[in-house]
Design a protein that fits this description.
25 strands; globular; 7-stranded parallel sheet; 19 helices; Rossmann fold; 9-stranded mixed sheet
């Protein structure tokens, strides 16, 4: 029988439940267990795909084409494995499924209620993920006491009853605030949070305490006694220089001892040698390189979470710190050439990530032109590739009105356009128009890309076929392909159907733009090769300056 670890949060959000969950899972995986993870989101949206990046941060895309919470990206990076749409579900998905079953008559005329119908659907999904694994770590989004989270807490309480006490464990992540005026760490918020959990019928077996200062032994004892928790199961979680240090910090506090005791796992000795080596390279690298990150969601950096992590991982494997210079694309729109020189003067690489909508596009085009003309290494991702094609079409081909139908549906030169029909990641034929619903009408998930030999892309991947993940609605228009090639743009990657997946520019030290999102396949132990090649070539450029 699979064992379950349920991770809840108290007092307030953003305490690091995701990193706590991923760290526990990574330690168990390195102890030899087959581990998977689930993130439950209590919002009523079916998925985060239609949410603003300012609202929810990055939308992570799985190999099988699900738009998921960004914590799934953390899980994949920590566990060094691909997860699926089963590993993340929302209140919206639960209610949608139950209502569809009710409409079909699956409940045989019964009154449909939170208990048992909603809770049964939640349990079914959690247990479905548990097949063929030893341990499932389940993170419950939100905070204990939130009205929308109650059905999930009831469902996991029932699972504990069904599987038995040695097969279920509750970990509660909470805050120990430091009151500066009083010079004291306070335990009362945690006590109240635990009381709320116990009122629901859940008694946590472990406390993970977010704190600015180390917890004295006397305070840990007070927490254990007041919350009815074993004294060795009060774990402190202080801020770390990198999130990948957290599993090592937990291990130093013997976090696996109370976990093993509760779940009857025996003596655990995780081998974290390689992990420790990479963390040291992240914290104390020998070299550095400066990259300009030209985006428009800069007020919430979590909008680019996977890409930031990918740059950090690539740097670590190259023994290098990647210094990110944040450049707001809307600011670039107002700048003349002299000001642009000031912005990019000390930059060794320019990156334009994905995005949606027209805002900030002209600024991104300026950055791309600057990278092309000044021979600065450039990496364009998704929209960053489409704009590289538009910039080239305007300034090299002389197509003054070259544009994307996303920004101008009536453009006379649609070098980027909306294809009406495509095959999705599951092999199904999909139709879409300008009026199609936003949710789920994109090319989503893993697609094959055939890599042209002799290109920078082939040099990075060292293979002629890769699978990378997509999240976009528009494509490069094949009608312009020959004209682009004649003027020096190389199509270095194509899909099975012949869609343009990657472009490069002749006679440029390193200018690569890809339609897919390489950051989504990046892992701590195995960085994405095209991103690592970009960082490496940016460093070579820096050495020349």
């Amino acid at each position: 029988m699979s064992k379950y670890i349920f991770v809840t949060g108290g007092v307030l959000s953003s305490l690091g439940k995701g990193i706590t969950s991923a760290s526990i899972a990574a330690l168990l995986q390195h102890s030899g267990f087959k581990v998977t993870m689930v993130k439950i989101d209590p919002y009523i949206n079916v998925d985060p795909g239609t949410m603003s990046p300012f609202e929810h941060g990055e939308v992570f895309v799985t190999e099988d084409g699900a738009e998921t919470d960004l914590d799934i990206g953390n899980y994949e990076r920590f566990l060094n494995k691909n997860l699926s749409k089963k590993n993340n579900f929302t209140t919206g998905q639960i209610y949608l499924t139950v209502i569809e079953k009710e409409r079909r008559g699956d409940y045989l005329g019964k009154t449909v209620q939170i208990i048992p119908h909603i809770t049964d659907e939640i349990k079914r999904r959690i247990k479905d993920v548990a097949k063929d694994v030893d341990i499932v770590v389940v993170e419950l989004g939100g905070t204990v006491g939130d009205i929308e989270g109650l059905p999930f807490l009831e469902a996991v309480r029932q699972i504990k009853q069904e599987v038995g006490k040695s097969n279920a464990m509750f970990v509660h992540v909470t805050l120990i605030p430091y009151i500066k005026a009083a010079g004291e760490l306070k335990t009362k918020p945690t006590q109240h949070s635990v009381q709320e959990l116990r009122r629901i019928g859940i008694t946590p077996h472990m406390l993970v305490c977010r704190t600015e200062k180390p917890l004295p032994k006397s305070l840990k004892t007070k927490l254990a006694d007041s919350c009815d928790i074993e004294r060795d199961a009060v774990i402190e979680a202080v801020d770390a220089p990198t999130v990948y240090q957290v599993p090592l910090n937990f291990l130093n506090q013997d976090i696996l001892v109370p976990i093993s005791k509760q779940l009857d796992l025996g003596e655990l000795h995780p081998d974290m040698t390689e992990w420790n080596f990479i963390v040291k390279k992240i914290i104390s690298p020998q070299k550095s390189v400066k990259i300009a990150f030209v985006g428009k969601y800069l007020q919430l950096k979590e909008s680019y979470k996977s890409l930031i992590e990918a740059l950090i991982h690539s740097g670590a494997h190259l023994d290098m710190k990647v210094e990110i210079e944040w450049v707001d694309s809307e600011d670039l729109e107002k700048m003349d050439d002299e000001k642009l020189d000031e912005v990019f003067n000390e930059i060794s690489g320019i990156l334009v990530p994905g995005g949606f909508g027209e805002r900030g596009v002209e600024g991104k085009l300026k950055a791309i032109k600057y990278a092309r003309e000044n021979k600065i290494p450039y990496l364009g991702i998704c929209l960053g590739m489409q704009l590289a094609v538009i910039e080239f079409a305007r300034n090299v081909l002389g197509l003054e009105y070259a544009n994307s139908q996303e920004f101008d549906p009536d453009t006379p030169e649609p070098v980027v356009y909306l294809i009406d029909e495509f095959i999705d990641a599951s092999g199904q034929r999909q139709l879409r128009t300008h009026k199609s619903p936003l949710g789920g009408t994109m090319r989503l998930g893993g697609y094959e890309c055939f890599v042209q030999k002799g290109t920078k892309l082939y040099e990075a991947y060292k293979t002629d076929k890769v699978i990378e993940r997509h999240r976009h609605r528009y494509e490069v228009n094949g009608a312009y392909e020959e004209a682009l090639k004649e003027k020096g743009m190389i199509v270095s990657g194509k899909s099975v159907e012949g869609l343009v997946e990657a472009v490069e520019i002749k006679d440029h030290p390193w200018f690569v733009a890809v339609q897919f999102h390489p950051e989504f396949t990046n892992k701590l132990k195995s960085p994405n090769k095209v991103i690592m090649s970009f960082v490496e070539n940016a460093y070579k450029f820096e050495k020349k300056i």
